Fold these 4 entries.
Entry 1:
Amino acid sequence: MNAATDRSHLVLIGGRSGVGKTSTLHALHALLTEADVRHAVIEGDYLDLAHPAPHEHRLTERNLRAVWAGYRELGYRRLVYTNTVSPRYADDLAAAMGDEPRVTAVLLTADDEAAHHRLAQRETGDELARHVERSDRAAVELERGCPPSVHRLDTTTADPSAVARQIAVLAGWVPPATHPAR
């Protein structure tokens, strides 16, 4: 491999709860698999899911470094990583990979009504109220905290497959769709 093809590429997908990160991740994985684009997927929420939360020990970065080393050893160079706040921490996550990846950071957005409706599909009672409150707070914090270089994609009325295609095109992993002349 030459230096251009040996360089890794990290795609970060973040956004408030109820914005469609997981659905988009699954759609992106299916799209890339269908297009035979070699890639790995990591759901960042599970890299440091513990109680008490070990954030002060940077366990997310430590675990990402270890997991990515295994993928890289097997020849993977494209990583899709999802986590609510990942676009805010693009530099830290890229550094944790240890191989100076190119980064495409995407913040998924949705209006309150759409996000709340999606949350209501998976949460109930007090848990729903807590998730809605955290989601609303995260939406404001993410919009303020993500730099302008982070791509913003509105999922309010978008199908996860369409959002996944937009992300794959932004990353340069698939060509833009061409439409036949009418």
Entry 2:
Amino acid sequence: MAIYTRTGDRGETSVIGGRVFKDDLRIEAYGTIDELNGFVGQARSMMDGEQFADVREQLLEIQHELFDCGSDLAYVKQDEGKYKVTGEMAERLERWIDSLQAENPPIERFILPGGSGLASVLHVCRTVCRRAERRTVTLGRSTDINGETVAYLNRLSDYFFALARTVNTRLGVADVEYIRGAKVFRDLR
């Protein structure tokens, strides 16, 4: 089977319920989610051994859920009965975040992306996730979408922040603090 169809050669693509231009807000939203999924896969591939077995499994679940987010956003007409993203998914992320935060040292300043290479990739995941959230919010202002997708993406970016810090902690690498500002946080564990 050929992977090319030639149906998009004129700048259009199929969504559930019709065709749209490839720069449509809908395509921007779930295309950014797809980009995020690629970075999550990269981060996951960098996690060797038992040290990261727990979060490697979490990231695999997140990759499936990112496909669910894209699927939900692909509907031209709202169809709540077919949506895959639920509020329970964001609640589960909160539990994972709390567990990760318990491993992390107290935070007093803003954290710059960095430390270990793996943490840096997770910070890329966080920033791409924020962009996916923004694109999804923009889409939701012009058409009906599954609102749980926005909540999930919002919580997911927090998860990536907590995980980047946990990775640094487990590797014995210090987070990179933004030192040009005042101490702005109380213990967020």
Entry 3:
Amino acid sequence: MITAGQGQTRIPVSSLWLLLIYASDLLPGLRTDERESLLSGARDADLLDAIADVLATEVERRLRSNLTLAYQPRAAEMTRVRGSIDHLRTSANRLTDRGRIACRFDELTVDTPRNQFICSALRWAGRVVQSKELASRCTIAAFRMQRLGVSDRRPARTEISRDRVGHHDRSDQRVIDAAALVLDMAVPAHIPGRRSVPVLARHHGRLRILFEKAINGYFRYSLDHTAWTVSRPQLDWGALGDPAALDLLPRLETDTVLDNRAGRRIIIETKFTNALKVNRFGTKKIRSEYLYQVYAYVMTQARSRQSADETTEGVLLFALTEGQDPVDVEFTIKPHRVRVMSVDLAGTPSEIRAQWQRCLH
């Protein structure tokens, strides 16, 4: 169970793994068979094993050739000058009395934050995957990386964010994405233990973004690309007036927009919270600010449609909260169809996909 907001809203989530996979940057880099096995639901019972398998396979391929080298800054006491001299350290420690000099220099090595990050992901996967064979592969691959000189430390994400993948090492992006996803999936959601829950499971803002990206990723990879286009554009109000006045208009930033070649447009607004509330009379109503938001999206786009065959629909898709009944209602605000739907994240991956797919029905 995950508590969102200020503790007033509780959203049952059986596992964050499915959301993490659809929201990750790994899917575009997977081979067709690997991607299809994840998207079709064939690996729903062992999602972590599926990603760890990709990671282990990629690392084994690099170990057969060579790990990516990079220059890393290093400081050491030398018997000859290398790089630049650290005069303060040399004088303070009286190194010249012993025939040594403190130097700073760059060294070409495999012990980079990138390889350390990948190695730490392998060590984690070796402890948590279900398959004993896969656990052995991950452990052996991590051991081989350490034998080649990769140190046993897990770099901070800030170090990895500063690491830039160039043209010559672009193939590393796939293994970096797999390692990041394996570590993100280290959520102890199934059994109690001593390990603390990662910040992801306690940070409502990150969960909201994860929910938005997962739904966008689902449609991006599940819809037929010859019939649908998936995007998240910033919409135009279509307003006319003084530039100073137009600058005061808020931006219309969408979560997911589906465009069909036949002219059908579906604007999906996602909310990782309850979209219903009880008014002062004890009646359950859709939150007005959410409905106004969807209405604004739909009406601004309706003006730009070229013919009667081009339709614009709005969907308010929100996470089902604890104790709430499922919601799936629709109405027409002439001539536009608007739907309000809940998603039960406590269901199985196949059930969650089926609920997302209802946006097209």
Entry 4:
Amino acid sequence: MKGINKNLILAIASMGIFVEALDIAIVNLAIPEIEKDFGLTSQSSYQLQSLYILTYGCFLILGGKFSDFFGRKKVFLWGTGIFLFTSLGAGLSHTFNTLLFFRVVQGLGAALLMPAAFSIVTYYFTEPKERSKAIAVFSSFAAIGSASGLSVGGIITSFLGWSWVFLINVPVLIVIIGIAFFMMEDDKESEARFPDIPSGIALVVAMLSLTHITELISDPISNYIGILICLVVVVLSSTYLYSRLKKQSTPLLDLGIFSLTSVRKGNLLFILLGAFFTGYLFLMSFLVQKTFNYSAAQSGFLMMPFNIISVLVARFLLPVIVHKLSSKSIATFGMLGMFTGAICLILAVQLHNLIFLLAGGSFIAGIGMTLCFTGFSVIAMEEVPQEQLGVGGSLTNTAYFIGGGMGLPIFTLFMDKELGVINSKPIIVLAVLALVSIFILNRPRLTLPIFSSKEGSTPH
């Protein structure tokens, strides 16, 4: 790595994950304009988010394996290139089906980009303290991107049109690709075998079916046949996947990685974080536009302070506390911020008070998400061996999107059916998720079944 500017590499990887994280949330406040242009119902336009998240989450494990097999630089460039192409295609779409197609493929690009970017960071930064600081910077960009999405999406939609929610990615991605191509080391020949595609398909089918069940339970009586079919598919595909992972000499995912305490705890925390923050984004958009009656542009400007706080925390607070506090302490403070934010949102609804609404968003998106994502990332990767960094990074994000995909339909069960009316029940669920996360964080050991590819084996 002689002559390599590691800080520049970190900046490029972080910008890649920032754009990817931004795109998850940025569409929310643009959806009303998209509905208006294409004459859609909310049920149809919601697919823009759900299918993107599902595609992203379902292919992350394969994305991590491709990163390990083909090389982190190649897969990073592939993923960024696909993201660039689909951003351009989505922004220039003239029909909803075309937009939906590019949005789905964009999720595939994100599934390649993210684990490769994470693997790049952990490859170039090897010394423990240096790696922790680099992961903190990288994770903070992801958190800032997620927190900025609602604000940026509302402002761009109002002043430039919804197309620019996607087109804004293009010049940034061109710069990222150019610098990555010339500055990163070429990938060395990998000793890993080609990923097990049948296992990947089984994993995707199981996750899609499981997520679909959470959507159907909103009306279990009418949807009982669909729920039963999905349950059968989940059982069959999971059984096939488990059998194949146990038998393959080089499985898609070494089950022994779950023998690591950090992996078990970190991924469970990411599931809860995904459910919490995806639910927050949905509820916050609904609160600001429906309950408090702000336009998309007004909502964007209203949420801008959250982004500023997130940037300040990432820029000035994280570099200090990452050297003074353990990852568990950082994550615990983050979840305390999430809990405080949820309480503020409950008060905002009960009192119809804008100050509490802004305080809730500041604690959750400005402080809590940045600290939680950083702390959880370090916790999850503490014990992962270098040869499994790609898969380890993709596991945490798969867990995050499993939480988001399953959590959002559950939140809607607690909402009032009348348009524009929201009660405190779904926000109370946010507070409960935060408390459960704090409890798990501070348990000395996480008691879960230990899986391994062979009896008694652990990853090495």
